[in-house]
Amino acid sequence: MNTFVVIGGDAAGMSAASKAKRDDPDLDVIVFEQGKWVSYGACGLPYYIKGEIQSLENLVSVTPEEFREERDIDLRTGHKVIDIDPDERVVTARSADGETVQDYDSVLIATGAEAVTPSIDGLDREGVYTLGSMSDGKELREYVGRARSEGELQQPDRGPACQFLETCNGPVGIVGGGYIGVEMAEALAANDFEVYLFQRGNHILKTFSEATSETVVEHLREQGVAVYLNAQVEVLDGEDAVEAVVTTDDCVPVEMVLVGTGVRPRTGLAEAAGITLGETGAIATDSYRETNLADVYAAGDCAEAEHVVTGEPAYVPLALTANRHGRAVGQTIAGTPTEGGGVAGTAAVKAFDIEAARTGIIDHDEAQKAGFDPITETIDANSRAGYYPEGGTVRVTLTADRDSGRVLGGSLVSEYGEGAVHRSHALVAAVTEGVTVDEFSDYDLAYAPPFNTTWDPVLTAAKVLGGRLN
Amino acid sequence: MNTFVVIGGDAAGMSAASKAKRDDPDLDVIVFEQGKWVSYGACGLPYYIKGEIQSLENLVSVTPEEFREERDIDLRTGHKVIDIDPDERVVTARSADGETVQDYDSVLIATGAEAVTPSIDGLDREGVYTLGSMSDGKELREYVGRARSEGELQQPDRGPACQFLETCNGPVGIVGGGYIGVEMAEALAANDFEVYLFQRGNHILKTFSEATSETVVEHLREQGVAVYLNAQVEVLDGEDAVEAVVTTDDCVPVEMVLVGTGVRPRTGLAEAAGITLGETGAIATDSYRETNLADVYAAGDCAEAEHVVTGEPAYVPLALTANRHGRAVGQTIAGTPTEGGGVAGTAAVKAFDIEAARTGIIDHDEAQKAGFDPITETIDANSRAGYYPEGGTVRVTLTADRDSGRVLGGSLVSEYGEGAVHRSHALVAAVTEGVTVDEFSDYDLAYAPPFNTTWDPVLTAAKVLGGRLN
């Protein structure tokens, strides 16, 4: 019997294991997961901490028991793989019961990503959190629960940011204005914390367009979040526990800090086995996710993927890619070689009452490095027919190559429910298929007054940008 | 000076006039419109009748005065063109002041569509309405207003369909379950009418998938609309005014009937001028919308357009195509030949608390006629992450060609606000670009828990259909 070993039991790993076993029931599929959770929706953690999801278990799409019993996968939680030996074709795993040596015919490295540790003093103080794992989520929820019950007793008056709130907790600091930072600002503010968000540069959600970023900042401020741009955090100061966020310019008293300054691929195991990393620092693979070692694959947040616009390797650690590439590897292992496609760098985020999405290449430096001559246009358009009783504004940023007219990327933001995210689907397709702005503006998109103007905002953006190109 | 004559002042006509004049200010642009309204959003009429839009003027995007004064277009309302003479290159228009003969260098026929007259007796009775024009909309709104004030006085008890309503008007009949029929069911029910909807076949919204259609029928019934399927309406009976809808099986007492059994292209003027019609009965054009007569163009609801899937001429009279093709003709006339793209047959509709969209080719007969071997799959998927506190279900129907795997078309339905319509944008792109279901399922669409599951429902549909093809 053929043996497929999977290292890491989250999105990529469990997608691969499930697909391989389903397509080839004779395959022996063994998954080593160092923790106790598998196949969990880490993207849901901010909503759990916010209090909208009652239990961590709710985030688990398939339980360990289901994988074992219904899907017949040999899932070994509490097993950390410490070595891959490609010559002997074995992996060694360590658990509370000692070491296991397991031979393999093929192996998938799906070790995911880990939080970047920024160069800030005081990261080890009590009250400093990160949000990368289920147990991080549990701790943050417990913190919120404790502070909430105290806050409800004390009802302190903590200054201007609290003016909208009946009770006020905090103050708390968030270092980093990425997805986690923005989503956690919402989660903490919803629990009546006074929230201070620190962003190193002047551009939160930095892969989104400047126009989107500015819109989100404005909205966060309207919601009472104190956003500090160009804020270089140097120290998380305090006696034992954290008491202040110290930047080059300010010192803001806080009772808790969440550090969300991005992630990096977890590649130590792969490097030790002689696996090549790419320029991005993540594991390099071919289009089938195979590494430089035969029969050793890598997928998900530890690996690169080719960008649909540039064709070059990129590191975009997000859930859909992990699922898709994991599934493709499973299908390949089961006998049907499957590529699983590239990445467009698509992402979506909700921030209080607005939503935003981005895809492709928007940044001009990045576009120029890839050989394009970028041009960008941002438009505001009604989200529904102007005469329709409901509706808001969709702000669309579109970037194209001046020479070819090719759509390179875009970014959208709207009120929550006005469709910035779902409307981005059309842009993903345009970016993936390499169409020009003129071709894109000819797309026969759905129209009815409750959903858009006759020209959907994305088409209007293409029309306006097209006008600047012609 | 060059003279561009436009016949018809709605979407296609005014888009062409505006674009041509904007791109070439030296052009003499003359528009003949037989009515008094131009550039109006007929798609908004159901919402005006419903009472959500207060004035007909709100539906007008640009007023006649703005066209004349700001855009410098010679707009002549109240002028009906009665003849095009391609040899003399003149058109003749009739108005209250007599006849005008106008020479042209190029002319656009944008005469739109008119309501189909079904073979039903009694269409001329009082209380029988259609909804094709602004004045139709005005009459219907007045009817609703009158009935409403009576109903509020009388508060009659009109049987089971009224059980949810505090007051009840009607009963009223709607003949035809297309967009107009469905949107007007909502508009009339919102005004407390007891609504009876009659559909000839068993499939309302007949270009949508059966699964979508069934979902909409079920929802209409939940909302208290009595839907009669396979109902062949023979007579609208009554003394002077209409009093009953008589089908082969039933006789339903009504006080008003709206007939919405589709539209046909208004082609009399073109035919008389020797212009060729296509097999669909609409005006045949090339990809630049030029007819068989040199410098005579046709666009919008009176003309054909090439279907992006089949490449063959199709008749899909909808607003976006009219706008897009009108604009393309304007650009061509102004010196930049522009095709304006084909049609995918995309459409969207809101029905009470659900929304639906469709695109491409779904019907198997139609697919087979175009040389495909169609296969269809329908799936239900969560509209947001399963653990997210809000959300509903998106039902996606996807049709592909068995041999090539090419996505031919799709249909989606969800609760209103759960994104069936905006999610269809991705499908329009897939259909337009001719991608396979496997390629489509690899699209890197935006994901975050408040907006979808990791695989957006359209990707899940592609994955499932792909599994049946491989």
Automatic annotation (TrEMBL), chains A, B:
<keyword id="KW-0285">Flavoprotein</keyword>
<dbReference type="InterPro" id="IPR036188">
    <property type="entry name" value="FAD/NAD-bd_sf"/>
</dbReference>
<keyword id="KW-0274">FAD</keyword>
<feature type="domain" description="Pyridine nucleotide-disulphide oxidoreductase dimerisation">
    <location>
        <begin position="347"/>
        <end position="452"/>
    </location>
</feature>
<dbReference type="InterPro" id="IPR004099">
    <property type="entry name" value="Pyr_nucl-diS_OxRdtase_dimer"/>
</dbReference>
<feature type="domain" description="FAD/NAD(P)-binding">
    <location>
        <begin position="4"/>
        <end position="310"/>
    </location>
</feature>
<keyword id="KW-0560">Oxidoreductase</keyword>
<comment type="similarity">
    <text>Belongs to the class-III pyridine nucleotide-disulfide oxidoreductase family.</text>
</comment>
<dbReference type="InterPro" id="IPR050260">
    <property type="entry name" value="FAD-bd_OxRdtase"/>
</dbReference>
<protein>
    <submittedName>
        <fullName>Coenzyme A disulfide reductase</fullName>
        <ecNumber>1.8.1.14</ecNumber>
    </submittedName>
</protein>
<keyword id="KW-0676">Redox-active center</keyword>
<dbReference type="Pfam" id="PF07992">
    <property type="entry name" value="Pyr_redox_2"/>
</dbReference>
<dbReference type="InterPro" id="IPR023753">
    <property type="entry name" value="FAD/NAD-binding_dom"/>
</dbReference>
<dbReference type="InterPro" id="IPR016156">
    <property type="entry name" value="FAD/NAD-linked_Rdtase_dimer_sf"/>
</dbReference>
<dbReference type="GO" id="GO:0050451">
    <property type="term" value="F:CoA-disulfide reductase (NADPH) activity"/>
</dbReference>
<dbReference type="Pfam" id="PF02852">
    <property type="entry name" value="Pyr_redox_dim"/>
</dbReference>
